[in-house]
Amino acid sequence: MRVAVIDIGSNTARLLVATVTTDGLIVPLATERTYLRLGSEIELTGTVGPEKIDQCALICEKYVRRCGELGSELTTVIVTAPGRQAASAAALTEAITRATGLPVRVLSAESEGRLAYAGAVAVAVAQTTRKLPEVVAVVDSGGGSTEIAVGTPALGATWVRSVDLGSLRLTRAYLHDDPPTARQIGAARDAVRDALSELSPPPAGLGVAVGGSARALGKMIGQQLDADTLDDTVTLLARGPAARATGSFRITVERAETLLAGALLLGETCRVLGMSLEIGRGGLREGAALELVAQEAARAA
Q1: Does residue 247 carry a pLDDT above 80?
Q2: pLDDT digit string (tens) for 126-150?
Q3: How far apart are CA 251 and CA 133, in angstroms?
Q4: Which of 63, 89, 106 delimits the end of a domain?
Q5: Are residues 17 and 57 in the same domain?
Q6: What does the alpha-carbon distance between residue 299 and residue 287 come to, in Å, rounded to a whole number?
Q7: Rounded to the nearest 5°, which phi and psi values hold at 59?
Q8: Over the stretch 208-232, which tens digit does the pLDDT of each residue have?
Q9: What is the arithmetic mean of pLDDT over 280-300?
Q10: What CATH number did the domain enclosing 23 receive?
Q11: What is this structure's pTM?
Q12: Is residue 292 domain-resident?
């Protein structure tokens, strides 16, 4: 079945159009990304203003047209942290529905973590010849929040926790200069440690990191992220303006601006999990695509 997922996050709006086979294989046909930075307005004012809402609705309308061109049979629109954190969340979802004719689902933090887990594990199973460990942890570090999910490939996520800190939110709250000062970095690190301090995730045999920060960091330091290397990356990024990373590592300007915060978040998460993280190729949108197909199959049964 050909399906599409439109994902509205704190940093970006993203589109995935994919074919999902009967055995759960996800074959991407098209992906698109637009930087919206809804989280910046939320951090500054607590809301998303009318101009940004209109911009988001127009992008969703464009994505829906693209879905039609590619023959999507089912399309879903999901909103993550902006739908939970913005005072104007209802206005945002209503504008998207008017523009697209589609209902909008605001994901709870737990649902976001579970879907990211399902997508990451499904793609990992499809793309590796090795047998995955019995217990897998997935970290979905976005622009406005970070979800940690632990479970088994067979049963899915059984332990899910979320903190209201993501790379964009942390940057706007603490890392005001470019490059940030040592004092700012220290305050940001303290905030992350405080947010993660009460989490006691179950031990896992494999850790997987998904999200834009993880993928960008993979271009810099390889496909394995560990706490010490991420600390070194924070130090490296703090030596110069964010734009320096764009040419050297083929990272967009928008991503580079929040990359230090992403490295800091993932490094401290590695410490909480007590393990390094592999960079995953699947995540939230893939999990939402699988869920969409499963729901349709259940209705047809």
Answers
A1: no
A2: 988 789 999 999 999 999 999 999 9
A3: 32
A4: 106
A5: yes
A6: 18
A7: -65, -45
A8: 999 999 999 999 999 999 999 999 9
A9: 95
A10: 3.30.420.40
A11: 0.96
A12: no
Q: Which residues of 233-255 are buried (b: 16+ CB within 10 A; e: fewer)?
A: bbeebbeeebeebbeebebeebb
The conformational region for residue 195 under phi > 0 = left, psi -120 to 50 = alpha, else beta, is alpha
Q: What is the CATH number of the domain that holds 204?
A: 3.30.420.150
Domain around 118 = 110-279
Could you read off the pLDDT of 8-41 as tens digits, one per residue?
Answer: 999 999 999 999 998 889 999 999 999 999 999 9
Number of domains in the chain: 2
Residue 65 lies in a domain: yes
Exposure letters 47-84 (e unless 16+ CB within 10 A, then b): bbeeebbebbbebbebbbebbeeeebebbbbbbbbbbb
């560990």: which residue's tokens? 226
Q: 72, 106, 140 — which closes off a domain?
A: 106
